[in-house]
Amino acid sequence: MSLANTKTAYGAVTRSLHWLTALGILIMIPLGWIAHLSPWGTEAELATKAQLFSLHKTIGVALFFIALIRILWALTQPKPAPLHPERKAENFAAETVHWLLYSTLVIVPLSGWVEHAATEGFAPILWPFGQDLPFVPNSDRVAEAAASVHFLAQWLLVASLALHVAGALKHAVIDRDGTLARMLRGASAGSPAAGHRVFRPLVLAVAAWAALIGGGAAAGMFASESAPETPKLEAAQSDWQVTEGTLGISLVQMGKEIEGSFADWTAEIAFEPRETPGKAGDVTVQIAIPTLTLGSVSKQALGADFFDAEAHPTATFRAEILRGEAGYEAQGTLTLKGAEVPVTLPFELTLDGDTATMQGSTTLDRRDYAIGDSMGDATQLSFEVQVDVALTATRN
Questions:
Q1: Which residues pair with 112 in a beta bridge?
Q2: Half-sphere exposure of 178 (CA within 13 A, CB side)
Q3: Mind telling me which Pfam families this protein's record contains (predicted)?
Q4: Which pLDDT band, with edges at 50, 70 and 90, does 227 fall under?
Q5: Which element (helix H / strand E) includes 261?
Q6: How far is CA 320 from CA 70, 240, 345, in A?
Q7: What backbone phi and psi angles, to 5 degrees, belong to 177?
Q8: Which of these, 116, 119, 27, lies nearest to 66 by C-alpha position?
Q9: Which of 3, 134, 262, 386 makes a 20 to 30 Å CA pair with 198?
């Protein structure tokens, strides 16, 4: 049994890669649809959905490498001649379908992999590598574009596969020739003198891809959805002017830490340093919720089940600044998504003349603010959300 192809027969390597690819497709496509359609209203359902997607992603990445190996091997091998060279239209269609199959076997899993790498926290690939990809940032926009390509390309894969199977059945049932026997047993059939036309089928396959992507773009599949309107915060009337600072949050989703920050917030500060315990001032912080960036899950985080930025575009933290035995802390109330919850923020303070630098952090429980109520399992989405504040301010 020859490992390599001849001009009239497929070798063992080509046939093994062909049937291994077919098995991967038969598993991956229905598994992906089942994962997509499975409910996630309860903790158990969400866990099952994540497991299904993890399995689908893992098989998809494996199929991507199998497809690459298959293509690289095919480039080194002669392609067995067509059995009916006189049937030009049929051979043209077969060559076009082969180009579409090869391209979709690469693009479908690759686009899904890019979508995964651009997102954070949900349904990891079931091996240590491949969670991230070079040059693929954690980005909603990248993830959505890759998801659109994945969605469109899967239908081209299904259509190409259906045409390929239909052609194989025609050869087996109607023509009763050696086409299927060549791929099943490596049987030799056909005339070595017959050749394949490559250029025009390739052009038609490229045109099919252009029509597919162009149609998706025309349908708005690559357009970014509008974000909630960002409220205009009033300028803070403060004794201290914040010159630079960050307001960040971090949490754990599906075992992976996700970090983010709010781009727009103001701080109204009245403060007098003191050496003894007692009140040292007041602070009011206004936060524009729609300015949150949280990696690739920013849009999800701003949705109705989480921050609900459209209905609750701002959050407010009002607190007294107190000097204690161990240092300073802000004790007050955080109003977020209609809930008012007591919060204490310990912080370190460094004074250099009229310049103050502070760093502080505290931990919130997202359940206090009805954030992510549909995700009641802390292993899926941590209840604790760490808030980190750092700023530099100068006295007016």
A1: none
A2: 16
A3: Ni_hydr_CYTB, YceI
A4: low
A5: strand 256-262
A6: 67, 15, 10
A7: -105, -170
A8: 27
A9: 3
Token match 């955080």: residue? 334
pLDDT digits 0-9 by tens, 24-43: 999 999 999 999 999 876 77
Residue 286 amino acid letter: Q
- How far apart are alpha carbons 343 and 317 in whole angstroms? 8
Place of tokens 């091996």: 127
Task: Tell me if 194 sits within 8 A of 182, measured CB to CB.
Answer: no
**Cα–Cα distance measured from residue 223 to residue 225, given in angstroms and rounded to the nearest whole number:** 6
**DSSP classification of residue 237:** -
Taking the C-alpha atoms of residue 49 and residue 57, their distance in angstroms, rounded to an integer, is 12
By CB atoms closer than 10 A (0-12, 13-18, 19+), residue 28 is buried
Where are the alpha helices (H) located in the chain, listed in sequence order? 12-37, 43-75, 88-118, 140-169, 179-185, 199-218, 298-301
Strands of 278-288's sheet, edge to edge?
265-271, 278-288, 314-323, 328-336, 339-352, 355-365, 384-395, 240-253, 256-262, 292-293
- Residues 287/313, Cβ–Cβ less than 8 Å: no
Q: Measure the CA–CA gap between 47 and 41, rounded to whole angstroms.
A: 10
Residue 377 has a CB neighbour count (10 Å cut-off) of: 13
- CA 376 to CA 370: how far, in whole Å? 11
Which are the contacts of 172, defined by CB distance < 8 A and separation ≥ 6?
179, 180
